[in-house]
Structures are given as structure tokens and as C-alpha cells.
Amino acid sequence: MNYIPASLTIAGTDPSGGAGIQADLKTFQELQSYGMSVITSVVAQNTTGVQDVQHMPTPMIKQQLESVISDIPFQAFKTGMLANIDIMQAVAEKISPLDIPYIMDPVMVAASGDRLIAEDAQIYLRENLLPLTTVTTPNIPEAEVITDRTIDTLEDMQQAAKQIVHEYGAGAALVKGGHMQGEAVDFLYDGNKTHTLSAERIDTNNTHGTGCTYSAAIAAYMSHGYPLPEALQKAKEYVTAAISHSFPIGNGSGPTNHWALRKELVK
Ligand SMILES: Nc1ncnc2c1ncn2[C@@H]1O[C@H](COP(=O)(O)OP(=O)(O)OP(=O)(O)O)[C@@H](O)[C@H]1O
Ligand SMILES: Cc1ncc(CO)c(N)n1
After folding, report:
1. Phi and psi at residue 262, in whole multiples of 5°?
2. 256: which of 90, 174, 177, 242 fits an S-S bond (Cβ 3.0–4.6 Å)?
3. CATH classification of 6-259 is 3.40.50.720, yes or no?
4. Hey, CA dihedral for 242, 172, 228, 219, is it positive or negative?
5. CB contact burial 152-165 (16+ within 10 A = b; e otherwise)
């Protein structure tokens, strides 16, 4: 083997294992990309919501990034929860020189409704991080914050994806339709063309961490060398399988099943 496909996630934690760093590492592992992680915030959360948060000091975030970057080559990375401007600045400084795919999940609010980033950081993210991305993956409420307009229809979603690329400089934008009614449709605008990714809506409440899992899967497939539209198509299949085999565990919105695509089970 000439090189080991590897992926890095820069994000917050979820001790209940369904979202954040934990979901990302499980996804990397399942998709055979060597998984590495830099922790930005420790979040006390579970399937019912967020109970407490503590942010890592920025020198420690920078040091974690240096430790990984100086030692192990990787071919793709993602960011998830970047809670405030200081953290965003520290991360931007370290990732700017990297010339590999950057998938940004612009995490703002957890599925439970708990806010995960400071309000002024939303603007900073738009102005300073979006231009560094290969693709950003907002859900509808996040796309509304970024574009400063409401999104009610599939047409609005497509317009938002274009605006995020042309006005804010993202490499590409995937606006996800998990929060819409009907089919689970996402739109990718790659700068030239809009691609539609759709799947049947699965009737489940177990969607904790779907966004994290999806963006981690895009990073993992890109680390294997798949170009963006193909990586996205495969990641959509992965997240759909993970939702359709999700678990009714915990007292709230349960996690997705990260091993849903496995052919051989332990028993
Ligand atoms: N019930 C469902 N059935 C099928 N696909 C779904 C369902 N809910 C969400 N999806 C899909 O899952 C992916 C994640 O989308 P979603 O918009 O829910 O992300 P998110 O809100 O960022 O996730 P999170 O819950 O982690 O905050 C998208 O491809 C979306 O279409
Ligand atoms: C740490 C973290 N990142 C992202 C989300 C969004 O699902 C979450 N619940 N927790």
C-alpha cells in the first residue's frame, strides 16, 4: 500500500456517541479512512439535548492541529462545531496552508435545538472560513443564517446553494433537506451545475448526528480520491443507510447506525 487514506475532523464531542467527533471517527473507520481528531469543545450532551459545554483553550487547539499536521499525512478534513471567533481564528490559521479537500459542516444548532456557536461567530464563519472550503454542508436553518433569507421551497434551497458559492466564496455548497417535508432532497451547487441527491424519507426520530455523519462520510470518500459529486453520492447512500438502520436507544432522538453498510456482522 503506497499511502493510507486518512481523514481529520476538527469538532466538538458527544459522549453519547451519536454526533460530533465520535460520529466522525466511527464514520471514518467504517469507510476505511484512518481517522484522526482535534477537539475544539467538550460538550456534555446526549440524545435529549446539551447539558453543558467547555471550550478548549485556543493554544491547545492549535497545538493539537500542529501535532497531527506535522506527523501524519491526510487527504481530507472536516470541521464541525467551532464555537466562537477565537476558535475559528485559530483553526483558520492552521488549516489555510493545507491544499486538500476541506468539508465544512457549519454547525450552529444541535438537532435538539440547543445553540452550539456564538451569534457573532456566524458572521465570522461566513466571511473567513467559507472561502477556504471545498464544500460546505448547511442544513436549512444554517443556510438561512448564512444567506440571510428564508428558505421555504426546493427552489429556495437551490438559490441558497448558489448564493453561498457566488456571494460568500465557498468552493461548493450542499444545502440539506432533512428539515423539509417529503423526500429527503439535498442540492449540491459546484460552481457550474446543481446536482440533486434524493432519498426516500425514513419515518424515524433517530436522526441525532446525521449532519456530522454525512460530512464525515464526504471527507472519508474524498480521502480515497473520489471527486466531489461522486463522494457526495456515496456519502448520501451511507447516511441514508445509517438513518434507516438507526437505533432506538436513549431517551431522545437516537443515533444513526454507523455500521449499516457492513456485510459481515459479529453475530
Ligand atoms: N428522516 C430522514 N430520512 C431520510 N433522510 C434523511 C432524514 N432526515 C435527514 N435526512 C438526510 O440526512 C442528511 C442530513 O440532513 P439534515 O438536514 O438532517 O442535517 P443536519 O440538520 O445538519 O443534521 P443534525 O441532525 O446532525 O443537525 C441529509 O442528506 C438529509 O436529506
Ligand atoms: C459536538 C456536536 N457537533 C455537532 C452537533 C450537531 O448534530 C452536535 N449535536 N454536537
Report:
1. -65, 140
2. 242
3. no
4. negative
5. eebebbbbbbbbbb
Q: How far is the CA of 71 from the centre of ligand 1 (A)?
A: 34
**47 CA → ligand 1 middle, Å:** 15
d(CA 187, CA 173): 8
Q: Name which of 104, 171, 114, 173 is nearest 143 in CA terms.
A: 173
Q: Ligand 2 pocket, 80 CB below 6 A?
A: yes
- Euclidean distance between CA atoms 110 and 119, whole angstroms: 14
List pLDDT tens digits, range 65-112: 999 999 999 999 999 999 999 999 999 999 999 999 999 999 988 777
ipTM of the complex: 0.97
CA distance 251 to 65: 35
Query: Which pairing describes strands 49-55 and 76-79: parallel, antiparallel, or unpaired?
Result: unpaired
Q: Which atom of ligand 1 is nearest to the CA of 185?
A: 31
Distance, CA of 18 to CA of 105 (rounded, Å): 16
Task: Give the mean pLDDT of 214-236.
Answer: 98
- Give the separation between CA 201 and CA 117, rounded to whole angstroms: 28
**176 contacts 137 by C-beta, under 8 angstroms:** yes
